[in-house]
Write a structure and sequence with these properties.
The structure is a homodimer. The first copy, chain A, is α+β, with helices and mostly antiparallel strands and about 625 residues long. Chain A contains 16 helices and 38 strands. Chain A has 5 domains: about 160 residues, MoaB/Mog-like domain (Molybdenum Cofactor Biosythetic Enzyme, Chain A), CATH 3.40.980.10; about 60 residues, Molybdopterin biosynthesis moea protein, domain 2 (Alpha-Beta Complex), CATH 3.90.105; about 70 residues, Molybdopterin biosynthesis moeA protein, domain 3, CATH 2.170.190; about 110 residues, Beta-clip; about 180 residues, D-Maltodextrin-Binding Protein, domain 2, CATH 3.40.190.290. The radius of gyration of chain A is 34 Å and the shape is flat.
Chain lengths: ~625, ~625
């Protein structure tokens, strides 16, 4: 099979409209009758009317006695009236029928029983404490409109109104076919060259959330005939089919050819990033969609093209997500060739929402987990400037965003520990951290884009951490320095230290991996190199940059580099050897008002908790001397 | 069993806190290990860390050729370099490993093949288009914190990170016991005195939504021993039990006595309206909650007291609902004896949210279906004045509220028809109508509390509908009158017209049911009575008021009255006889800018649609002459 080097790239909207138009009846909806008791979350396909009234008859609204109102006339505190049992009144509980001649109810607590009967001290006007037939629901009345998603209260009212079956949109069955010779099931032990198949499981969950019934098929290797056979079987057993991946134009991308043979391909390639290699087709009178393999591309392709088909089947209207306006923290450049979806973290700092772009790679699935939403750059725009206010489509509610501490700066694994502990506290408090190095964090704090900045910047002249940097970045402003931890920095190297590295002086003879500019660890390295009289250009790999301690450790563990600098906990977590070069202070910088946020009070509380201390002991390489101390810096 | 006339009424907060404290470990949480592929919607009980890195190895980010970067040095448009297959390069697809000595990838579209090998026109720097091991996920990295609700994307990333099993909070099993001698299963044909059992089905759905597993038991009659047996069995088979009803203090309310015998009752009665008769208890080391029988009380009692216990089991944090601030349209008086939950409809008129209280009865379940939220009046407040801005806890999203037409005024069944048709249109457009009569509707419109007011007010002097009323209520303002329908008004009477009613003149000799003051139908009646020379005091039941045409029809059908006035469609729907007394005009009044709302454009479109016409034909008694015409009134 030859490569088909260039895909068409149709604008996203146009592709979607063309597809839905081409599908016509192939995208449902179908309807079915179901029991009301099974209807939670289902969507009505037609209006529902009450069969009975509720209450079904005039009934007592209170526990007490049913009386004939005219026989109570004149009763008062000063001239009580005695009613005779079986003649003048009847004991009723709430909900009991009030039959003629009775036409009113007197509450139990307003009566007194004696031998002669029941004594009352006030007249009961007609219809007092009686619920007339149909007070709540009148037979024939519309209870629900069409396209209504059934809630618990609806189930109660439908049954009260005598409705036991309703018409709803049928749930579409969706076949999901993972393809690829290199992919393996999650439960097998992966070898080099293997890719763990996870997309189809994500699709199953996405289909369920949208009200469909997913059916996943076995992994099909990259083989034209096998793919064709699997697609035909899935089409036979489902209402629509998703094929993943092989939707691009590579040598082993058979999907589009198979779909051309057995059906009609309307679109191959859309102007969307990530997510360009999408196939929108119909075969055997049913929708078939080819989805790219990169997880972020896959997610976006499903949201943009599978969801509308599912909604057409399920009758769900729902909007496409909550939108807010947020100030962009960094310039975003995009191409006129596509609409781009940039994952962002969002937080509310002061009275404005700010958003920080995350990794943009189509393979960076973890950034989807970390993200709070998408900033969408339209195809006709070349991007946005830093400081511009942009639309963000949120994954979370605005309430969750409002309760999030935005933490921007230096990376340490203890942030994960605090974040985990915070999530265990009441009512959805969150810590959202972005790692751009100590200096970058302080700059973000200065621009009002973060609540707190973790920082470990050494002043070479005084040997004091952070203080002089704060004074120079926030001149004339009073800032708070919340003392964090002392941690051991050092050189990480392969297990057993095969190259016999003993310290900074050995960096001239090994392949090194550095941290990015502005990272406190890099500042420390530069200081140590200077002390040792080594020039940066003499270190092989000084310009190779990794963004976190763990990323450095991964490079060393993977053999890409012989040595990198970082904290003990990262080396420990990756099973590396560690040569200490010194202890440093890792603190949190913030504006004074931030200390008053309830979320921040929780952060400070957790910093001093036994569970935090125990977790750090487990990670290793930390000391908590002075931790939690609050200093004012001006 | 004696009546226990007075319950304690503990403040809501205090009761909840006392109960959760008393339950201690009895409210979980328990944890369990489950497969990641089954984890959608479940909540992590501990942080989850990656077992593998992703990618697992250095891999190609593009389809193309893997090369040794140093061997491409110097390649350019003017001096292309030819690479030899198997030696200088290797063909790779996206995701394939890039093994040493290869350290870069050149995209397929930037290469040209000839007999000697592959021609390239640009040098490839080291690591170009290569995804380093761990670029997305580093082994040992925290993927999710504790208390995180699993989304589809999380499933994908967990599997990519080698995690196939996770610890989550176990789903609590909840036994639900409906009790009551008078209640019947929904599938039986109810007789007088029967109450259709619907609460337990609502509870099942509520428990499911909160992540529990409901188990409903058969209806138990009001019998001490039978209730005790059922509760003990349910306790044995579940993590907690809900008993409904019998939670009050009536002669047949056994629940509290049973629970006192087999366990401990912490609270009986809370200061909440509706929902006072709640029992909070523990038996056999498990929570047992007694819930009142009225559906609205039941709903509120479950939300306030069952949900916190469920959340303690499931680890779900979630907030207690979206809040907005809205202007109250009517005075609300409440007692210092309780916290009151008032159902309200909410709409956005102009730039402010307005809310209108609905029926306050504990039995008015249908008002829960119609409501958009609760206005909560705290125990320490005696109510709110009309025009005050109050907190509303929404059942719907603010987006849905923003897309709702608020329709306040006269009632007609055609509003249900339009509401149903609107729900079928794209993206959640809604019509929300409150029925307070024509005059009340115009006053609400005047105060900015509604978008449109359906009105059929006859000017006795001119015989013209609505116009003079608009001029007098909106002096000097230009208003829009959207012509609606002509409809037949008449007298409704029992099937076969047993009393031989022929017209208005017969109202002197029958039991009548009237509409409320300000209703256009009452204005019409008064006019007709005057024409016939009949005084209101000569009509038996002139002061008996019903709020809608259907409510009047229900009273006549139920035999509470012999005759009432209303539209043909209502008589037709309830199978009543109908004696026409005249045709009238039923129109929609609004401010000019309302016509520009997209939702209103949809309303106007539907008013002229074939489906609307067909539905009105089905209802009967309408003509659409002049319908959709827009008049400016000043």
């Amino acid at each position: 099979m030859k490569r088909n080097l260039y895909l068409n790239t149709m604008p996203v909207e146009e592709a979607g409209e063309l597809y839905m138009r081409s599908l016509g009846d192939a995208a449902g909806p179908h309807t079915e009758k179901i029991k009301v008791t099974d209807a939670l979350g289902r969507v009505t396909s037609e209006a529902v009317y009450a069969l009975y009234s509720s209450p079904l008859y005039n009934s007592a609204a209170m526990d007490g006695i049913a009386v004939v109102s005219s026989s109570t006339e004149g009763a008062s505190e000063s001239s009580p009236v005695t009613l005779r049992a079986g003649e003048d009144y009847m004991v009723v509980d709430t909900g009991d029928p009030v039959r003629k001649p009775y036409d009113a109810v007197i509450m139990a607590e307003d009566t007194q029983e004696n031998e002669e009967g029941m004594i009352i001290h006030a007249a009961a006007p007609a219809w007092q404490h009686v619920r007339p037939v149909g007070e709540d629901i009148v037979s024939g009345e519309m209870i629900l409109t069409r396209c209504h998603r059934i809630r618990p209260i609806d189930i109660g009212v439908l049954l009260s109104g005598g409705v036991t079956e309703i018409s709803v949109f049928a749930q579409p069955k969706v076949g999901i076919i993972p393809t690829g010779t290199e992919i393996v099931e999650p439960y097998e032990d992966p070898k080099e060259g293997d890719i763990i198949e996870s997309n189809s499981r994500m699709f199953e969950a996405m289909v369920k959330e949208q009200g469909g019934i997913p059916k996943r098929y076995d992994i099909v290797p990259d083989d034209y005939e096998l793919i064709k056979k699997s697609v035909l079987r899935a089409l036979d057993e489902n209402d629509m089919v998703i094929v993943n991946a092989g939707s691009s134009a590579g040598t082993e991308d058979y999907t589009v050819h198979v779909l051309r043979e057995i059906g009609e391909v309307f679109v191959h390639g859309v102007a969307m990033k990530p997510g360009k290699p999408v196939i929108l087709a119909k075969a055997c009178g049913k929708p078939v969609i080819g989805i790219p393999g990169y997880p972020v591309s896959a997610y976006l392709a499903v949201e943009n093209f599978v969801y509308p088909v599912l909604r057409s089947f399920t009758g769900m209207k729902g909007s496409s997500g909550r939108k807010i306006r947020a100030v962009l923290s960094r310039r975003l450049v995009s191409s006129l060739k596509h609409r781009e979806y940039v994952r962002v973290r969002v937080g509310k700092v002061g009275d404005r929402y700010v958003c920080a772009p995350l990794a943009r790679g189509a393979g960076a699935a973890m950034s989807m987990v970390r993200a709070d939403g998408f900033c969408v750059i339209p195809q006709e725009a070349e991007g946005y400037e830093a400081g511009e206010t942009v639309d963000v489509i949120l994954f979370r509610t605005a309430e969750e965003i409002d309760r999030t501490i935005v933490c921007t700066g230096s990376h340490d694994m203890l942030l994960d520990v605090i974040s985990d502990l915070m999530s265990g506290e009441a009512e959805g408090i969150r810590l959202s951290s972005t790692h751009i190095g100590s200096l970058g964090g302080l700059m973000a704090l200065q621009r009002g884009e973060a609540h707190i900045s973790p920082s470990h910047l050494l002043d070479e002249e005084t040997g004091i951490y952070n203080e002089s940097y704060i004074r120079s970045i926030f001149p004339g402003e009073e800032m708070v320095l919340l003392k964090g931890v002392r941690r051991i920095q050092g050189l990480m190297t392969a297990k057993g230290n095969p190259l016999g590295i003993r310290g900074i002086e050995d960096l001239k003879r090994v392949r090194f991996v550095n941290r990015q500019r502005g990272a406190g660890t890099r500042v420390l390295l530069d200081y140590k190199l200077k002390q040792a009289g080594i020039k940066p250009e003499d270190v092989d790999g000084y310009d190779a940059e990794a963004a976190t301690h763990m990323a450095v450790a991964a490079q060393v563990a993977g053999g890409e580099a012989d040595c990198g600098m970082g904290v003990y906990s990262a080396a420990h977590a990756m099973g590396l050897d560690f040569i200490p070069v010194g202890e440093e202070e890792y603190d949190f910088v913030m504006r004074p008002e931030t200390l008053d946020m309830p979320e921040m009070k929780c952060f400070v509380k957790l910093l001093g908790s036994d569970e935090f201390r125990a977790k750090l002991d487990e990670l290793g390489g930390y000391s908590l001397e002075g931790s939690g101390e609050i200093m004012k810096i001006k």
